[in-house]
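Sorry, explain these tokens?

***
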Amino acid sequence: MASFPSSLLRSLKIPALRPRHCRPARRGYFAKAAVVCLVIAGAAGIYFYTAGKKGPVVEDEMFHQVAVGDFVHDVVEKGEVESARNVDVMSVVRGYRDLNNFEILWVIEEGKMVEPGDVLVRLDSSALEEEAKLQRLDLSGSVAGLSKAQNELEAAQIAMTEYVDGLFVQEKKELEAEIKFAEETLRRAEEYYAYSSRLAAKGFVTSLQLEGDKFAVDKAKIELENAKLKLSVLIEQTKHKKIKELESAIGVAKADLESAKERNSIEQKRLDFFLEQIKNCTITAPASGQVVYANERGNREASEFIVEPGTSVRERQTIIRLPDYSAMQVHVLINESRVAMVDAGMKATITLDAFDGLKLAGTVTKVNEYPEPISRFGAQIKRYAAVVTIDGTPRQIKPGLTANVAIHVDSKDDVLMVPVQSVMPYGDEYYCMIRKSAEDIEPRKVDLGPSNNRFVVVNSGLEAGEYVSMSPRRLLDSVEMPELPPEQINPKRKEGGERKGPPGRSPGKPSPEKSPGEANQSGGETQLVDRVLKNFDANNDGVLSADELAANGGEKYTSADQDGDGQVQRHELIAATNSEEALEEDPVRIAEDQSPQAVGGAQ
């Protein structure tokens, strides 16, 4: 409600009420009341006309004085100090079957100085000890099998010697004796048959007796031939057959012995394996140095590793590092939007959160070609690992310190610069709002050069000493802007690369910023804004602070802060998406990384 000067109200004296029967006084009262109403109406009209008249509002505006300075374009990222030459102490306990991870039972205090042989970590070896007990039983069984196989081989070899040198010779001699006996029997039968034949010729022996003697001769011949055949079979067949059987038995016994030896060797190696792993559960220092825990807080799921009792350790996982303090470096992760600017060999300035005022010189020595793994639960922002070596490491620098690394991408001396929020895109050009006087604001087109997250170089359009508005969009309705061609009104990309304005807008006027509750927001714009808030708004208050954006790599969205209060509101994000093609495509809105020394001043 409009307020009026108190002196005006005091000058209007309203007469007191008089009795009803005083008619002349009553007429004077109404006349004065009419005059008062006219005066009030006129004053209100003048007030509202003056208040509603548009004009430049500079009282609440913040202006920046254009000045010449040194432009520095740095890519700034947080990193962690580490040693370039570490002696990594890792777990060498190998997994077996289901035993792949071993818990830490005890670990030496971090920061303690150690000498070679000092115990650093003890891992839980109870499961390995149980396996070693079972393995000893298996080894005992293999030893018994080995002894049995050795005895069977020796028995087979003895059987061979027994047959060749004993049983065969004995059987051969028996057959030779049998042949001798058969020969002697045949000789006697033949002599007796000859004698019987002579007696039969004289009639002293009957023919029947002579036939009996003849049969005895034939029998003796058959027995002799049979004995000779047995000897021949023994020498030519039975001997070879028996030797083959014995050789086969020896071969089987040898194979069984080799198998038993291999089995015993395997069981012994398994036992030695478990005993070695039990020994490896006690980890000692390979060199002297100061203990630094190899804690990991990566982006991958379940990748966090904190060195403390109860933590599971896998094979070949580094637990402790013994750093070389004479060679230190910083491990940083660079946002994918800026990694193309960084190359090996670039110089960098390193500051540490632990030491105010300490600045260290560094050099980029490595930039990975592939991004680091991304957790599906975190912000889907790809980052590339880089290594920045520290030149001349001071003695107080230790691994694990948080470092701010400013990689010097570009620099220009003695150039005209203005804050990025003081530049406004208008069509295909850029404008600044120049304060000519307290009531005069002039829009001026500017030609821009390189920019960082705070300042942009102005090639032409401004002069040192002039004042530019820090929130130029607020002054759009107070100045006359040049008409734009239809294709540049509220630019939105067509599929063929053209630009088109929204339907229903008159040519020559830019599309105004949309309010948070405006119903005609496009689905793509609101989805983009909602996605940005979801990824970077850590406390879910609907506002993006500088700390939230810096912590998650969203520095590029700081350019949407139109009122310069250090926070990005939802309507500011919506305005940025409505008035610009894409935030990251505009050099004025790229919050690259550096906060260079300010030039000029705010008025």
